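pinned: reference chain
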Amino acid sequence: MAQTMVLFFFSGTGNTWWCAATFAREAAASGLQVECISLEAVTSKIAHKRIQEADLLGLAYPVYGSDAPEPVHRFVQSLAPAETEAAPKRALVFCTQYLWSGDGAAVGADLLTERGFPVIWTQHILMPNNVCLPIQPKFPFTNDLGRLGGKLRRARNKLRHLAVRVAQGRPLHHGRSFGARLLGRLQREPYRRMQPTLRTVLAIDHDICIHCGLCLEICPVSNIADFGGSLMMLGQCVFCLRCYNFCPVAAITAAGRHHEQRRGTPYRGPCPNFDPRILRQSHPC
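pinned: its structure tokens
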């Protein structure tokens, strides 16, 4: 009988969503059945039920400053401790990143371990850059799938290798060495100190905004509200960049600066016509 895994994931602009769906397909070829669930659209009660029903637990997310996104922290902390189960589920954690994060996946492993889940597999997956802010270093970004193809193929191969390791029960501990933990901590600690300031970096230019409501619809934490037809940020941003990247008229500013149009359209996912609204659904894969 095939093993089953429930894989909870958070995705900012589509990279981790793509990896979750790709991992599920590759895992099926190795005899492992994976159910992908967006953690934005699942209650802790339902999550607990899905974990009980599965053989293995998975967690996937993008790395922000060598840290797991805030929704991931909240989700894992909401899970019932594994001690309430006769046999705690073995767990997998993988994270997506553009360059490096040191111990990005180990952060999620620590969170799950604190809840009593033994983490057997951790992996980092390199994906296209989705950070297009004018206040960030000028790393290249593109929506040209021809140029993204090489990185996506390498990511798929890495996910296939990970799926085989999980199906065979062979551990993998990428990003959990002493050196990786040290490098991650050097980035994570200043990032966490900056979070209160970063929450207010994005704003809406009301002279450009066309009131389409897309940003309000796709925000994972309801950080955008409609006040009498005027959309406003509430200061609870978790840095997913959906509103900035997908605004059809580039009305979202970063520290008062508009998107640099000469650099091209902001990154909009690893596949054609990607729609960020599916990330709010329970089973978007």
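why pinned: DSSP finds eight helices and ten strands in the chain. The mean pLDDT is 94.
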